[in-house]
């Protein structure tokens, strides 16, 4: 089994529940959602023209549209270079792909897995994988994705974005404990104030994209 991978690197998780955790990011190629403020636009399309060698992807030192298919063995071999035991499978939209096999194997090798998804596709992964759902206004997440999520992180730019948050949350009928985060888009000051005010009112959490503030990948 192989996965189209845009980049793989160790860093500090900057968002949501695992903020501050040393993490290895596996960024999969492909995303049909196309948010206008997306900061990984280079992952949107799996173009044959950009399909390069595994070595080129593993050794990337700047972002690009280049990607390569890596097998689980290629991935495990690459992970050996790093110390982190937390793996974030991100994108693009990682749930375009069946992630059951990779998450199970990684867990067997002692890694905790996390998936970051917009929720537009079924989330197929191990039971222990931590699922971060980040719904986007342009495409509603599937109900199954909402139910599977462990945390829901809403990107917020303006007050009207909260209507979408309330709409999604009011339709959740199960009793599962989920952590709710508001995350200002692109470190926008006004958005930060909106998020802080609502988090305090609702007792939700604030996610500030720590990596952007400390200037790491
Ligand atoms: S869902 Fe994520 S990767 Fe896809 S366009 Fe939106 S922000 Fe970018």
Automatic annotation (TrEMBL):
Pfam families: Radical_SAM. [4Fe-4S] cluster binds at residues 31, 35, 38. Substrate binds at residues 12-14, 27, 90. Gene3D superfamilies: Aldolase class I. Binds 1 S-adenosyl-L-methionine per subunit. Its EC number is 4.3.99.3. Mg(2+) binds at residue 40. One of its GO terms (biological process) is tRNA queuosine(34) biosynthetic process. Pathway: Purine metabolism; 7-cyano-7-deazaguanine biosynthesis. It catalyses: 6-carboxy-5,6,7,8-tetrahydropterin + H(+) = 7-carboxy-7-carbaguanine + NH4(+). PROSITE patterns: RADICAL_SAM. Belongs to the radical SAM superfamily. 7-carboxy-7-deazaguanine synthase family. Catalyzes the complex heterocyclic radical-mediated conversion of 6-carboxy-5,6,7,8-tetrahydropterin (CPH4) to 7-carboxy-7-deazaguanine (CDG), a step common to the biosynthetic pathways of all 7-deazapurine-containing compounds. This is 7-carboxy-7-deazaguanine synthase. It comes from Buchnera aphidicola (Aphis craccivora). The lineage of its organism: Bacteria, Pseudomonadati, Pseudomonadota, Gammaproteobacteria, Enterobacterales. The gene is queE.
């Amino acid at each position: 089994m192989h996965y189209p991978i845009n980049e793989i690197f160790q860093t500090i998780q900057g968002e949501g529940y695992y903020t501050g955790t040393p993490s290895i990011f596996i960024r999969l190629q492909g995303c049909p959602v196309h948010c206008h403020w997306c900061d990984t636009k280079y992952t949107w399309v799996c173009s044959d023209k950009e399909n390069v060698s595994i070595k080129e992807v593993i050794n990337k030192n700047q972002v690009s549209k280049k990607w390569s298919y890596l097998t689980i063995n290629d991935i495990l071999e690459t992970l050996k270079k790093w110390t982190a035991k937390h793996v974030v499978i991100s994108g693009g939209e990682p749930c375009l792909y069946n992630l059951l096999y990779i998450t199970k194997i990684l867990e067997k090798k002692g890694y905790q897995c996390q998936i970051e998804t917009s929720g537009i596709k079924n989330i197929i992964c191990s039971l222990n994988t931590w699922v971060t759902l980040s719904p986007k206004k342009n495409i509603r997440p599937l109900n199954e994705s909402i139910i599977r999520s462990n945390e829901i992180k809403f990107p917020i730019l303006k007050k009207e974005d909260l209507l979408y948050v309330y709409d999604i949350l009011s339709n959740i009928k199960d009793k599962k404990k989920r952590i709710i985060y508001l995350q200002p888009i692109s470190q926008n000051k006004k958005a930060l104030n909106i998020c802080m005010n609502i988090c305090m009112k609702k007792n939700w959490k604030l996610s500030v994209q720590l990596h952007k503030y400390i200037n790491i990948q």
